[in-house]
Design brief:
The chain is of the alpha+beta class. Among the domains are: about 30-395, 6 Propeller (Neuraminidase), CATH 2.120.10.30; about 1000-1175, Galactose-binding domain-like (Jelly Rolls). Pfam families: DUF7133 (PF23500). This is Dehydrogenase.
């Protein structure tokens, strides 16, 4: 198997003001950034860059603009004159708000030769302007925390008026800022925000708290609203010819169809209560996972096969990916096409794509070696801030665009452009018509909308022109609502959400469309229903749902809009559900389990309503599975104590008879076991027999056995503890099932459970032992029993991770904290800075050994798979790491061995203390007025009723524990990393190592002249005589100064102790020979080397230790016997690693045992390497190429 290589290379820091040394610096680059497979090499000139690009036959790439005309371009747009507006950012990745150095430029091609020849700076003083749109008399700019509206009031193409339209966007993650400002077909300005950019917009009396979302702004009224929420870091909005919205996103799936009021799968963080998330529209993946920009291409400048596609920038892939859409009911499904453009240059970063006035695709290129924000954050001074390109992909000799100005055209001219075969002109003309809102244009636009001879694209653009101008009359709306074209009907419905009508005829017409044959129309009716007063929300939603039994999207949208109505409209909902056709509607009945959970989770709603739902399902033939699902949901809410006291008593009164009937039907009824588990809540006689029998029967499915145990423990069943004891005496239970049973045992408060787990701790599998420990830590009394066993030496101390100890000290009882202090001493909160040492040790271990990736899968499943998914294996508690957290080997090392160094808010552990004394820790999934839901290690969801929550605390550390190296043998670590460092599963022949992984040759290590050796500045001392005269071969003093190329002392060999190899006698470690470097004040180091002329130095038989002093205490970096590692060289740390402040460095040499004497100690350096302590930047090369 491969060893791991860290190829970190030197390059010059680029600044805004110093450019004369740029080319020389670029030629020295050898750094391997994240998500890249090798050294980027020097940047290419714009012409050389396009020469390397690959595009389909007949196409070519042209340079439209490049540095210095544009640098660090982030976003772009075209205006009604064909001018290109580009935002530039020198400030990225700055987090602080306030004025900056960033700009907006206007690019013009005045001679129509295809290249920019005029550049005007429109605005300055911005701070990462991440989105731009032109319209409604000004320029809209996303400049977090604000959305700005900039105007040029005197015609000099300079912004002289600024308005803050909306404020409150976060800057917690500056690669997920509000972005992609795009005009929608309805005249709204749409934008996106990322999952880790926490935002709180207060606007006109409303609070909007959100992360990943699509928002929109009405340019006329300045109203702000969230269109939908979810996804990850979306960047790029495109609308298809029907006006449906699509976004590209990073890390998780890359393509999403977004619909108003929908809530989509999140990369991380909790969902609102009762959310039924919507998934992406793709099953495939492209090269990597950093998508930026998306364009729906519809222009006759390209052959047909390249039209009606989605073009998406792929930053890590250095290409433009292509997907094609297929309809699937009211939504879509996308399939991949071959890449449209491949740069073959890792500097290429396509951040935006737009169709231009000539019908060609334009690609904006940030052009930088640093693709990942981690690199930019770690080294903001080294981000290349002097380059940027804009390319055009041209087919054959596509004509250049001729000068035009849509603002100067008449309404008739603009309307004629709505039939253009280049969507660019249709979009621009539509926007200008909407802004102009001319009364004179209305008749002609209405006529065009109804013109059957016109193309549907033209007709829709005519309609959108009216919608954007808010000029759709009731009379014309009624025509559209009854039109044979479903897209016209659909948009007439959608318009009512913007400008509701009080015309009863409108209400009547839309009401009829709830059962329209078109899913697009029904989807819009479901979205509109809760927005207008004239539609009865619940009946309308049920009607839509009833007519959409197979649709993948509509049921989600119906539920999102229905469940809030249940707080006030449950009686109406239940009455309707008992009537034809809904009582027999598969689609409508399928929501009853969710409705039951929503009703039970809403204080003040009667449980009679839930009983009505259960009886309704029980009365319907063929609904046994839905009944089972409903009973399972109710049982879960009783077991979590969301339902107690009078409400539980009422539930028993209402449901006891129905549950008895289900149980009497026998175990062939799908609801049999769930009915028993629910009835256990009131000690039903039959249930008291069924549940123990299920749990005690080995042949029962794991899911069923665990559910029965959960129900028994929650209800305090008298046989539960006995049955658990018997369970652990059996030998035929699967390890997976044992683990799930263990995780359920926290529901009990019996000390018998604690004793049982402690007794069997040694015999549990490595996968299940941590689960047992977590359960023991859930109750202070159990924790004390565990700590007692640790104190007595019966259980190893390292069975508790630092994270667990920190959690216990901060959240558990005073007695527990005192016991921990007596065993472990003082437990510091927060991240342990000494993890840097561990990372360095693990780097050395992994770089010097070989592992088996197939065995690594077993280690992964045992340790990592409880919380992470990789190549489809594991649980989704923490981030999915197939495309996240493994950008290069340094990032992977840090994430595994120093997990709290960098942690997103959504991955911080949340600890809940319950009123009965339980302590639960996991990732927050839901936090509502009714309950708190945590996702625990192993993927188990733990629900705590809000009334049972005594306190909640968010940790500053990761849920992932520190110290996993203590749980694995060195061989297991090597195997694990052999697996983790592969880009694909090991059985895949295309699997490669992630960047920075490979082999390392110690002989290739060399200290560059830029490295400052802090030992030069230190006071050097030894505790024995120093001999440095004479000559024995090519040997030198230890300290070499790379800057001068000379040794600090004028010596050719260096021994301490006695000369000539004589013995110093047997020396214990306390009597060790020491070589010490001390500084007047702490210095920071992340790289340390020791070397000798011979591989066996300091001496073949001696023991040695390398130590550093931190806060007055000596800490061991490493110890060994014989020669330094790495063929006579000792290497600790690596350039770019987290630095450690130290006060002194000490090397000790002593006898390995009571017999072996210490001889004269050879501390010798070698030219170009030597003894070194310093803080090296990540781009510093220590590998001779």
């Amino acid at each position: 198997m491969h060893r791991l290589l860290f190829q970190i290379a030197l390059f010059a820091t680029l600044t805004l003001t110093v450019s004369s040394t740029l080319q020389a610096a670029e030629n020295e680059d050898n750094f391997v950034p994240r998500r890249q497979q090798g050294v980027p090499g020097p940047p290419l000139s714009p012409q050389d860059a396009i020469a390397k690009m690959t595009v389909p036959s007949g196409f070519s790439v042209e340079v439209v603009a490049s540095e210095p005309d544009i640098v660090n371009p982030v976003a772009m747009t075209f205006d009604e004159k064909g001018r290109i507006w580009v935002t530039e950012s020198f400030e990225y990745p700055r987090s602080e708000p306030g004025p900056g150095r960033d700009r907006i430029k206007v690019l013009e091609d005045t001679d129509q030769d295809g290249a920019i020849d005029k550049v005007t700076v429109f605005a300055e003083g911005l701070n990462i302007p991440s989105g731009i749109a032109v319209g409604y008399g000004g320029v809209w700019v996303a400049n977090a925390p604000d959305i700005l509206f900039l105007q040029d009031t005197d015609g000099d193409l300079k912004a002289d008026k600024s308005e803050v339209v909306v404020t409150g966007f976060g800057r917690t993650d500056t690669h997920e800022l509000p972005n992609s400002l795009t005009w929608g077909p309805d005249g709204y300005l749409y934008g996106l925000n990322g999952v880790f950019n926490y935002s709180h917009v207060k606007h006109r009396g409303q609070d909007f708290v959100f992360t990943c979302a699509m928002f929109r702004i009405d340019p006329r009224t300045r109203e702000f609203e969230l269109f939908c929420e979810g996804t990850s870091n979306p960047w790029g909005i495109a609308f298809d010819p029907n006006g449906q919205a699509f976004v590209s996103a990073c890390v998780i799936d890359h393509l999403w169809h977004l619909t108003e009021s929908g809530y989509y799968h999140r990369q991380g963080g909790p969902y609102p209560p009762h959310t039924w998330k919507i998934e992406s529209i793709v099953k495939h993946k492209h090269q990597m996972a950093a998508y930026c920009g998306i364009e729906y291409f519809d222009s006759d400048a390209y052959p047909q096969e390249y039209r009606d596609c989605l073009y998406m920038g792929n930053i890590h892939g250095g290409c433009v990916n292509v997907d094609v859409l297929q309809r699937e009911g009211s939504t879509y499904f996308a399939k991949p096409r071959p890449d449209f453009l491949t740069a073959n240059d890792v500097w290429h970063m396509p951040v935006d794509q737009k169709t231009g006035p000539d019908g060609c695709l334009y690609v904006l290129d940030w052009y930088d070696r640093y693709h990942c924000y981690q690199d930019a954050r770690a080294r903001p001074g080294d981000v290349d801030r002097l380059k940027g390109r804009l390319y055009r992909v041209r087919f054959e000799n596509t004509p250049r665009a001729q000068p035009y100005d849509l603002n100067q055209e008449t309404d008739d001219q603009l309307i004629s452009r709505l039939a253009s075969s280049n969507r660019f002109y249709r979009d621009q003309a539509q926007r200008v018509l909407s802004e102009r809102a001319s009364q004179n244009a209305i008749p002609q636009l209405e006529s065009l909308v109804l013109d059957e001879s016109a193309s549907q694209k033209t007709r829709l653009h005519a309609l959108w022109s009216l919608i954007g101008a808010r000029q759709l009359s009731d009379k014309f709306s009624l025509k559209l609502l009854s039109h044979t074209n479903p897209q016209l009907r659909s948009w007439a419905v959608r318009y009512q959400g913007t400008v509701p009508s009080d015309n009863p005829a409108i209400a009547q017409a839309i009401g009829k469309l709830a059962h329209d044959e078109s899913p697009d129309v029904r989807l819009q009716v479901a979205t509109l229903a809760p927005q207008v007063d004239y539609l009865p929300t619940v009946p309308t939603l049920l009607e839509v749902l009833h007519h959409s039994p197979e649709d993948k999207l509509i049921p989600h949208i119906v539920w999102q809009n229905l469940h809030p109505q249940l707080e006030n409209e449950t009686p109406q909902y239940l009455a309707l559900m008992q009537q034809t056709p809904y009582v027999q509607s598969e689609a409508a009945l399928s929501l009853l389990p969710r409705a039951a959970g929503r009703i039970l989770g809403t204080p003040g709603l009667s449980v009679e309503h839930v009983a009505t739902l259960v009886k309704l399902l029980a009365s319907q033939p063929g609904q046994e599975e839905q009944l089972a699902a409903c009973l399972e949901r109710i049982a879960a809410q009783t077991q979590s104590r969301e339902l107690t006291g009078e409400r539980l008593a009422q539930l028993k009164s209402e449901l006891a008879g129905s549950l008895s009937e289900v149980m009497a039907a026998g175990n062939q009824h799908p609801g049999y076991y769930h009915a028993a588990n629910l009835a256990l809540a009131w000690n039903d006689a039959n249930a008291m027999k069924i549940a123990p029998q299920v749990f005690a029967t080995t042949g029962q499915p794991t899911e069923r056995r665990v559910a029965a145990l959960d129900a028994m423990l929650s209800a305090g069943h008298p046989q539960a503890i006995t049955l658990v004891t018997k369970y652990f005496s059996a030998t035929d239970n699967s390890q997976d099932e044992i683990g799930r049973v263990i995780q359920t045992l926290g529901k009990s408060d019996s000390d018998v459970i604690a004793a049982l787990l402690l007794e069997r701790l040694d015999t549990l599998s490595s996968e299940n032992r941590p689960k047992a420990v977590e359960v023991l830590l859930q109750r202070p009394a159990w924790t004390l029993l565990l700590l007692s066993q640790i104190e007595q030496g019966k259980v190893p101390k390292d069975i508790l991770s630092v994270n667990q100890l920190q959690r216990l000290v901060s959240t558990s009882s005073k007695e527990v904290a005192q016991q921990i202090a007596s065993i472990y001493g003082t437990i510091k909160t927060g991240r342990d800075p000494s993890r840097t040492f561990i990372v360095a040790q693990m780097r050395r271990l992994i770089s010097s050994g070989e592992g088996d990736p197939h065995r690594g899968i077993e280690v992964y499943n045992k340790l990592c798979g409880q919380c992470h998914k990789l190549h489809g294996k594991g649980q989704e508690v923490g981030p999915e790491i197939t495309v996240n957290g493994r950008g290069n080997f340094e990032q992977l090392l840090s994430n595994v061995f120093d997990p709290s160094l960098v942690i997103g808010k959504d991955y911080q552990a949340v600890t809940v203390l319950t009123t009965e004394g339980r302590v639960l820790s996991g990732l927050l999934v839901e936090d509502s007025d009714a309950r708190v839901v945590l996702k625990m290690q192993g993927g188990k969801l733990e629900t705590v009723a809000r009334d049972d929550v005594d306190a909640m605390k968010t940790s500053d550390t990761s849920l992932m524990p520190e110290g996993i190296e203590k749980q694995l043998s060195p061989a297991e670590i090597l195997d694990l990393f052999a697996y983790l460092t592969l880009t694909k599963p090991p059985e895949n022949p295309n699997a490669e190592l992630i960047s920075g992984a490979g082999t390392i040759d110690p002989a290739a290590i060399v200290l560059p002249s830029t490295a400052h050796n802090l030992l030069v500045d230190a006071k050097i001392s030894t505790n024995v005589p120093l001999f440095d005269a004479g000559k024995r071969g090519e040997m030198h003093d230890p300290i070499f100064n790379p800057k001068t190329g000379k040794f600090v002392r004028d010596s050719q060999w260096h021994e301490i102790g006695v000369a000539g190899g004589a013995e110093l006698g047997v020396l214990s470690e306390e009597q060790a020979v020491t070589w010490t470097a001390t500084w007047n004040k702490p210095v920071s180091i992340n790289f340390l080397t020791l070397s000798g002329t011979y591989p066996n130095q300091p001496q073949p038989d001696t023991a040695w230790a390398v130590e550093v002093k931190i806060d007055g205490t000596w800490q061991t970096l490493e110890r060994g016997q014989g020669g330094w590692y790495d063929s006579g060289r000792f290497v600790w740390g690596w350039p770019g690693a987290v630095s450690v402040p130290i006060e002194a460095l000490r090397v000790k040499v002593f006898s390995p045992d009571e017999k072996t004497p210490v001889r004269s100690v050879h501390f010798r350096g070698e030219e170009g390497f030597s003894w070194f302590a310093g803080n090296l930047l990540p781009e510093t090369s220590v590998v001779r190429q």
